[in-house]
## 1
Amino acid sequence: MNLFIDTTNNNLILILENKNQIIDSVYKTNQMRISDIVMDELKNMLDKNNLKIKEIDSVYCSNGPGSYTGVRVGITIAKTLKILNPSLKVFTLSSLAFQAGNDNVISLLDAKGKKFYIGIYESGVCKIADQLIPEDYLEEFKDQFGDFEIRSDYKDIDYINNYLSLKEKFELNDDVEKIEPIYIKNFI
């Protein structure tokens, strides 16, 4: 049994999956206090499906970029589950890559202050590394990758399809204590 957790961008996404079959999912948007609800939602999902935490074999989670607290919530849950179940496997993936899925996408997250986190993905492969850019540079990327779809701030993404199609691209973390949230520093 696999669990996907994404709390990086004011949305709570939980997916229970087994052998590429979706068992259950929770998607709550605009959650300003994800840390207050995530454990209750996870417990409710497990109870509803008659599952115990020990029955989860792998956790897949987004590790940013995203809101400071949001990024840490998902990673902390993955680390805690690993402590409770030492045989648990923990996988991570950039939230920009998750948003892009396996499509040709300019993946954007509003970083506030007229800045954006951006990643360019072609068929799920990173073409230009995730980075923080000033809003002024955005048009340059749009011109360069004009035939790519623009996805921004997790709006209108098929999170279940993106998870399933990217599952093999998540990175296995042998030492969960070394998992760090992604905070992209300005390249300028």
## 2
Amino acid sequence: MGLLTDPNCEQGKLTKALMKYYNLVCVLFYLAGIVCFLALASREINVNTYFSENALLPGLVKSEFRDDSLARRFYTELQDEMKKYDNSLPYPWLLAKFQQLGLDTYTHNFSLTSVLGKSQKFTGKNVYGILRAPRAASTESLILSVPYRPPTSPHLTTAPSIAILLAFANFAVKEKYWAKDIIFLITEHEQLGMQAWLEAYHDVQCGSDGILARGDLEGRAGVIQAAINLELHTDKIAHIDVKIEGLNGQLPNLDLFNLVTKICTKEGVYNTFKMRDNKEFRSFYKDWAHSMNTLLAMVTSQATGIPDGNHGLFHRFGIEALTIEGYPYNGKGNNWKVEFLIMGRILEGVFRSLNNLLEKFHQSFFFYLLPSSNRYVSIGHYFPSIAAIAGVLYLRACAKWCKLQKKVTTVTKEEDDEQNQKEVQIIDAHKRVQNVFFNKEKLEELKNSFKNDMKLCYSCPKKEKSQIGDVILIFFITHFIGIILMNSPKYMVEIGDYYNIPKERSIFYGYNLISCFLLVIPVFVSFRKNSKAMAVLNVIALLELGTLLICVAMNNFSLALLTGILYTPFALLINNSNTKLMSTVQRIFWLLVHPCLVLTLVVLINTSFLFSNETFQEIFYRGINATQQALVYGIVDSMIYGNWLFNIVTAIFLPNWLCFWILTFSPTQDSEEKDKLKLE
């Protein structure tokens, strides 16, 4: 530690080696991080899933569910009832069914004030029934939820899910072994209704003030331990896909995922993860490629921080949850149909296992990656990859700091003697100049020596100020700008409303316009020609980016990994260049990874894959519109659900990008030599 604090401390062999080979070491560490991640798909690294909690095994016993005919009747009645409610929840029918089954039945009203733009109010209603545990005192509970989708919804119907929910409730009411309450919940408006219900149940507010009015609940059960969200799109299912990604990249306990997949396998149901089945190939490469595709599908989905189902909103409350989604036959898997009888048995097995839990999930992993539904990668195996990539930034910062300290301590004893001798010469020159002014007769004689003495008087080099205070000030100013950008969408929308511009365009063009203005910040940086001050700023920016990657990886590894892979090489390229041409190249490369440009490029690439048959112009305009909507959705998610992806990008990552942008204007070696010539 003395090396980082005491400039007089001698550098050891390790430090000297680091300063000499740090470029090579950084490249090796970066490549090692990528190789570590690619190796995760190998069966030599990942392992088979298993039950860590033996209390979950009772669900694997013989099933007793036989109410499939009742489920079909509910399904037929619900389809007729949905025709009367084109765009709302048929809550009178649902309330009546819950009451007929003997459940404690309640409704939950909530409202949403428009997040952006003109003030508008939207209302919604949830319906839920509670089966009180006959063998306990309502201290713990489980949830079976279904998002209701009216006939006008653009999404696939969930009417079969409601039918099997009611049939399973009828089955559960007759059983006496329940030790936990079971809440049967049907929500309106997709995730919005679920978020309002959870906030009301726990009496908290997760989003911004004055947006989501969660309302009050008339009835409650015990502490919620686990939840299953059901989305069946047909009454005859070909395969089941299990979804686990939650808000901000959170995941449920691995035991819950294992439980659902094992019971599906026990009942002979073809199940997938990320719509990909489990295949084993004799060829190592084919097996690795298949697992890597599944792993990348999970990484790209988790990195967005957006839940892929209503289950994703439970995780922040310490509730383990996942979604079981049933699809009709689409050419994959077996063509035989899974009807209500099998689905009822799956629900019975899952809830009987959860009912047997004596404590919360804690035995298995909460941080993992899945290359398939029967194999997993633990945090101990995948975290070294992001640690190596972030370590590159720390190594570069350390090397920069050591080089900076070396420049400070390079003055030798001989240079000190020379400096002292020069100071004596300057004093003598001052005396001779004064004598010349007071004795004009000798002016002609001393004309030549006078010129030399004047040059010597003004040849004393001015010490370069450290300007550390200015560096810290610029660092805080850039982050203050980020905070302003984080809170600016509503003002952009107000300006757009004044000129009758849609909010999507107002926000998109507003951020792009501000980004263009921010590109001139280096002009106002006073120390941009001070190489030492710019080196200090470089160290701070590298440390911040590395710390950001590590902190984000603790909760959302996928987001940190993708960010690190993309930005680390470009951050390493930014350095004091030899020529102005290299500085220009650095600026161009760093502009290519501006957050707004990266978002646009990612959406355009995704659009080109989804609509490959369209022309380039059509894809471009479709991609720009999709980018505008994605930006608005990110802002809305942050204000309603508490998704922190938008906040992190604007408040932390964009200011860090600005710091590196300022560094691209560091003085080149040519400019430093010219400055020395001017002084001479």
## 3
Amino acid sequence: MKVDTKKLRDVQRKIAKEIRTSDEYKKEEIKRIGGFETAFFDDKIVCAAVVLDAKTFEILEKKHTVSKVPMPYIPGFLAFREGPAIMQTYYSLELEPEVLFISGHGVAHPLKCGLASYVGVELEKATIGIAKKILVGEIKKEKIVILNETRGEEIKTREHAKPLYVSAGHLISLKMACDLVRKSIIPPHKMPEPLHEARKHVKKIVSEIQSS
């Protein structure tokens, strides 16, 4: 499967110009949050979405989709591999979350267009990118610095565990993104609750499919 990465970079540059890292909502206006996680088997991608109450973290809705993997894994281009499945799953939801937690980067990306930013702009939704490692740049005083610009933050969510790397995706500030992630940590879980529950759900779906 040949991939035209030059064309994809052009798309990323175009989307990056549309990203807004200012807050679409005040904290008290955020009633529901959504978590999205993907898993792969054979040539399929499974995407799970879980919608939670933003205050109690009660699970309000779960959905999943199964589709064909559109392209191979290429670092920096996760948006085009996982983005379509995430958007398809979002559209299947009956409840609309104000903020989406995405397993990947937002603007902490070489072209400022990671998976969370891509999905946010395409859906015109507030999105947060949460990743387990940085793609580019360096960590200075717990900030992700790329080309002398702060684009994300390192957050330690559990003792003796590796940190998470949080960045704004779209329609949210880095401060609000980090505040929401910290608020969504329920010990002993390392991941914020929307992603923890989405990960559990996607693993369950893959297991059911493979055993059927």
## 4
Amino acid sequence: MQQIKTALLSYGMSGKVFHAPFLTLHPGFELLGAWERSKHLIQQDYPQVKSYASLEELLADDVDLVVVNTPVDTHFEYAKKVLEAGKHALVEKAFTTTAAEAQELNELAKSKNLKLTVYQNRRWDSDLKTVKSVLDQELLGDIVEAEIRFDRYNPNLSPKAWKEGTNAGAGVLKDLGPHIIDQALYLFGYPEAVSADIRTLRENSQVDDNFDILLYYADKRVRLHAGFFNREMLPAYILQGRKGSFFKLRGDVQEDTLKTGAKPNIDDWGTEEPGMQGILNTEINGEVVRKTIPTLKGNYYNLFDGIYRSITDDTVEPVTAEDGYRTMTIIDAAIASSRQKRVITL
């Protein structure tokens, strides 16, 4: 099996929790090491790998794929250097800070015949996979309204300075926003227009921490919300169709499981906790049916497998740079709409 030699641009939480476990589990990847600036931690977990002292040292090595898992405002600079060095790239969300940056990276990757993937792991969440299955089965009829939420209760400021500062990548819109915007585009396609209300609610916060975005389609409206003042769990997905409705709580367990140090090869990987199933209320064969829908298993491994196949078989990336660009156009439009208090036509 061909080996894709891979390096990380950091080994903090994302490198340790979201990337290294899958890169070392998948037989098609070889984890070479990580660029570490101050703390040198990767060799404690993987003694055989390297700790690079600089980006230049990493790019000079025999690396095929580089994971750009640094703060958002560095993504464009680092991803551009990675592509210019002739390496494939996997870039975390938010892909960039603007749509223009995303488009430049997309064009650069194409010009060099390199694979450029956006790390949208939540397409492989158990809840989104279940929502997609309900839609694919056309159980609700034509969708007329939908809502996707990412709720948390955390009124305190984050200790991570890059999340709370005035840099271009800070704020909930570019933190949680890329997840649910990508999910909306994945489920429903690209909208015709966008309106948004982006707010700052936490005391002493310098960044946006609450948003409502409305996506306008010819035949439906899709609402997106994220914020930090929701103690009670609300449905993360609300789908309203001409035949019926489907509600689903956000119940994917993969992030929490990974944070315990568990490896993603256990038998019940991605299995949701009991009681989190979605509720379907619809008409089937002329009869109104209300029932729970079993939740599909989540599996981030499939994202990495898709990346592997895109490189070795020259197939389309599992999440393309064009996908990342389209998400950034929605973010740019949302910012403009909130500032100008108007609907932005795309």
